[in-house]
Design a protein that fits this description.
mainly beta
Length: 275
Amino acid sequence: LVFLTGPLFTFAQNTSFSFDFQPVAVNNFTGIQSGVTGADPQGNLLLMAGRIDGLHKRQPWATFLPAGANTEITVLNTTQNQVWTVGIESLPVPVQEQLLSTNLEFEQIGPWLYMVGGYGYSSTVADHTTYELLTVVRVDSLIKAVQDGTAITPWFRSVSDPGFAVTGGYLGHLGDVFYIAGGQRFEGRYNPMNHATFVQTYTNAIRRFTVSDNGTTIAATFLPEWNDVANLHRRDYNMAPQVFPDGTHGFTIFSGVFQQLVDLPYLNCVDFDAN
């Protein structure tokens, strides 16, 4: 684990600042790549999905194997140097399969963690796929259930829609609206040689939706998406919340891959807000 420390959020224009990284080793935790994270007010970290075999292999026959998927929900407390884990086999099959995927989009709002999409092997379709699922998790309750060894199923709810089938993008939230920025839908077996084992479709868009929640079930309503092939045909980047010079809140997308006319990352940023 690497923690970011320092006065990151107190700087103004022309004010210098600094930060440093502090590695923290947690006993019996071996790491997760491209997973999902959440946290509770007590400082416990929640980790799900992603890979336990690191970055995907380059050989087509060895990449994104089911054996390398993360099959556990992990809770870490770095202050106490403790780790708790539980398997995901008690969850409904669609949620199980989504949690076996990598590069989901996710965002925590208060105690609720929203997870979208992800790419991985599905036993249901007998192939690799991008999941059409939004899953919502009650973070503090799930953390306590993992620590106490009680049922985890009550703290998961999900809803399916093709609009959620995105991997390698980012999920943001402003007001009542969620934004799935960029990313792609990837169906079939990845290979770096571009052999005909997959279909890759970039969203070229920012997809917008709202969520309604009656305490038992959730529902999602998609709004018209924003399309921009020139700037949003990208994936596997970083996105950060911003306050722009006029005080407007929004997001900035940094870099991403790949440029359409040359095999290089993007060298420009993309800013967007609620308008």
